[in-house]
Amino acid sequence: MSEFIVVAAVMAAAALVLLMIPVWRSADTPRQRWLGVATLIVLLPIGGAGTYLAVSTWQWDPQVRAELALERLRAIAASAEEGMALEDSVDGWRQLGDFYANMQDFTGAARAYGRATELAGPEDVPLALAFAEAVLFSDPDGFAERAGGVLDEVLRRQPDNARALFYGGQAAWAAGRWPEAEARWQRLLAMDPPAAIVRMVEQRLVEIRQHTGGSMADVAPGEPPSPPVAESPAGDTVTVELALGEGFEALVGQGAALFVILRDGPAGPPLAVRRLPATALPGTVELGSGDVMLPGQRLSDVSGPLAVVARVSQTGDVAATSGDLYAEGSVMAGGRISLVIDTVVP
Fold it and tell me: Do 71 and 199 fall into the same domain?
């Protein structure tokens, strides 16, 4: 839009000069000349700007533009979902799930991926895991009930699938199936996952021990180990410089959390996540090996741009809710990006 303003200003200036020449020449006195020029200088810009504002539908407020764009995307998704209800194909529902996930609408993504999983069955493991992730982000309280059975089927077929072990352990833990959750997470730990996953899982294992009264030789009572974060090669990190938009400080609620998420493309699953208190803003966050979610994954393995989402969660939950603040961008592994958080989730 800034280019439009520059071009409009140049054209207005040119029109002003062209109109000044005949006015200047036709005036009989110096007073008439300067009065005519002054009149043009006042009326032409004001008249042009007033006419544009009266007939234009352009929204100058970037927040309003973003909300309108999101509404259009939601309308497209709703229309596509109505069509899919008639077609009812696995690929169609999968693509619709990707579309919803790209909009950060994980409720819609869970609905679309769920239907695709019903049609495809648990044999389509990537689809089943996409469904589980969408449910976790959109409905953490209902995660065990909605995604637990799907994850059980995936683990029966692929008992060493790291993502399924991670999410399956979470589902079993949420359902109170402590031995099952412990067995899955212990199996995951044996696969040498990233340090961030190790810390999370071992904390959960301590909680399981407290519930069951069991013993874990490698974990001190009430004191989960904190393994050193793996060093990341220079090309396997992403540096995100973050700031809040002007006036947005007042919109950050007490106890809000900052999530910085990297994805393999806009619709891809989360690759790395960092959770910080919202008081860390403004600041710089570097994500690397210690923040990667699954064993064996590296940011540098992604050939294309990584999608970056920085979100201030008012509730402290990873799932986006109305009133959260966010910013998005893309960056290559090893790169740096600056984001200004100045958009509100409707």
Answer: yes
